[in-house]
Design a protein that fits this description.
Layout lengths: L2 H9 L12 H14 L2 E4 L5 E4 L2 H9 L5 E2 L24 H14 L2 H5 L2 H13 L6 E3 H6 L1 H11 L6 H13 L6 H28 L5 H7 L1 E2 L2 E2 L2 H32 L2 H8 L4 H12 L5 E4 L3 E4 L2 E4 L3 E3 L2 H5 L33 H18 L4 E2 L7 E2 L5 E2 L3 E3 L12
Parallel strand pairs: 2-10
Antiparallel strand pairs: 1-2, 3-7, 4-14, 5-6, 7-10, 8-9, 11-14, 12-13
Helix pairs in contact: 6-8, 6-16, 8-9, 8-12, 9-10, 9-12, 10-12, 12-16
Bound molecules: protoporphyrin IX containing FE.
Organism: Prauserella cavernicola
Family: Belongs to the cytochrome P450 family.
Keywords: Heme, Iron, Metal-binding, Monooxygenase, Oxidoreductase
Length: 415
């Protein structure tokens, strides 16, 4: 490695811990300080990476995917921590192969196909609410934010609804390890879970080859990429990413939002009754919660990011929340302002890898907020409780204890 890169790194050095134990807001405060003093900086933690903090730099890199940057490995340390056989598909592949996958996936998540799921999503939401509505109290993450996207995902994929608890356990372990355990213990748990997931997916694939249906699993089995059908390893890398991308993200947006409304109960009514309308309010919550944290690697001889010329092989890492809290575009960025003037947020990413599930995610959020509002017109954090949060490769909230005036069951079946 040339002397120049060491000089460049040390000139811009400011260490950064993506796995810090700070709260999300404390971490964002630190990012705000970096944005002011060292918007593009080099962190030596782990295997080292560059950290971006401004909307312009982050959107600039995302726009240049395939032209100077690749998305493999999508991890700040350049490691395969999530258990893919080769690379997570499609998030860690680029170029023509990526385009072919998107041509298969995009129609399966089109607005029309996703809209057909709405009645099932309403059923699923109400069945979950039925389980706690009479109690007057619940832990919202365990009883709604986690199972709701899981139930949606199983319906979409055509996988058995009763597999929901293990699916949620798998995704939580891969994303967040074991709460309170050492990194080694968490990695051992991740490896065990990935083996279980693989056995499960391979059995499902075998079954669906015998018994094709009109579901996402069957469509992926029948798709041809580069002139051939996908191997079991490729299907695993695809379904693993879909589980990780589809479950934890919606869960995080719901959990962060309910922690916010629990702290500021008056804002719950404002979300629905304000002049901007519910859809604008959901976009503002997406801006504010933005859980995903992509990483890219420079493949051109060099790439200009901010005012730093990064040579080939350097990794850039950027919480999308950092872009979404940039005061250049969002005045008073840490406040939730439901009628904020429109400026597209980056919660779903940008460019070639922009989220496949964007219509599904918006539908899930719309249904979840509407049904909870109908059945829990008021709620607040349980007295003395404070939600536990985590950072990492997807930011979120582990528990949100809420209390509310008890309601009545509507007699729906559990999803
Ligand atoms: C609020 C919920 C969601 C958020 C905030 C979100 C966010 C994102 C982001 C930021 C990316 C791009 C990451 C990158 O550039 O490295 C992405 C990609 C992706 N998301 Fe989502 N997502 C959500 C829900 C979903 C759902 C429900 C699904 C489907 C079940 C899904 C499937 C995917 C897939 C397959 C990709 C990879 C796209 C590609 O690489 O071309 N997402 N998502």
């Amino acid at each position: 490695m040339s002397q120049d890169i060491f000089e460049l790194r040390s000139r811009h050095r400011r260490d950064y811990d993506p796995y810090s134990k700070a709260s999300i807001q404390e971490h964002l405060d630190e990012i705000a300080d970096r944005r002011r003093r060292s918007p593009v900086s080099y962190s030596t933690r782990g295997n080292g990476c560059w950290v971006l903090t401004t909307y312009d730099d982050i959107s600039g890199v995302l726009r240049r995917n395939n032209r100077g940057f690749v998305s493999f490995p999508n991890d700040p340390d350049g490691l395969n921590v999530q258990g893919a056989r080769a690379a997570l598909i499609p998030i860690e592949i680029d170029g023509e192969r990526h385009r072919q996958f998107r041509r298969v996936l995009d129609p399966l998540f089109s607005p029309g196909r996703v809209a057909a799921l709405e009645p099932r999503l309403r059923e699923a939401a109400n069945a979950l609410i039925d389980e706690f509505v009479e109690e007057g109290a619940c832990e919202f993450v365990e009883h709604f934010a986690m199972p709701f996207p899981g139930a949606t995902f199983l319906a979409l994929m055509g996988w058995p609804a009763e597999d929901l608890p293990r699916l949620n356990r798998w995704v939580a372990t891969v994303h967040h390890g074991v709460p309170g355990a050492t990194e080694e213990e968490s990695n051992a748990a991740r490896a065990a879970v990935v083996t279980e997931m693989r056995d499960y997916v391979v059995a499902l694939i075998a079954d669906r080859r015998e018994n094709p249906r009109d579901d996402v699993t069957t469509h992926c089995l029948q798709a041809e990429i580069e002139g051939r059908r996908l191997s079991d390893d490729e299907l695993f890398d695809l379904f693993l990413l879909m589980m990780l991308a589809g479950l934890d993200t919606v869960q995080s947006v719901l959990a962060q939002s309910f922690a916010f409304f629990g702290r500021y109960p008056g804002r719950w009514a404002e979300m629905f009754d304000g002049p901007a309308g519910v859809e604008a309010a959901i976009e503002e919550l997406l801006r504010w919660t933005a859980p995903a944290i992509p990483t890219r690697t420079v493949t051109d001889e060099s790439a200009l990011v901010g005012d730093v010329e990064l040579p080939r092989g350097e990794r850039v890492h950027f919480p999308l929340a950092a872009a979404n809290r940039d005061p250049k575009y969002y005045p008073d960025p840490d406040s939730i302002v439901f009628d904020r003037p429109a400026k597209p947020h980056l919660a779903f990413g940008m460019g070639t890898h922009r989220c496949v599930g964007v219509h599904l995610a918006r539908l899930e959020l719309r249904v979840a907020f509407a049904e909870i509002r109908r059945r829990l017109p008021e709620f607040a954090l349980a007295p003395g409780s404070e939600p536990d949060e985590h950072l990492g490769l997807s930011w979120g909230v582990e528990n949100v204890h809420i209390v509310f005036p008890p309601g009545r069951r509507e007699g729906r079946d559990r999803p």
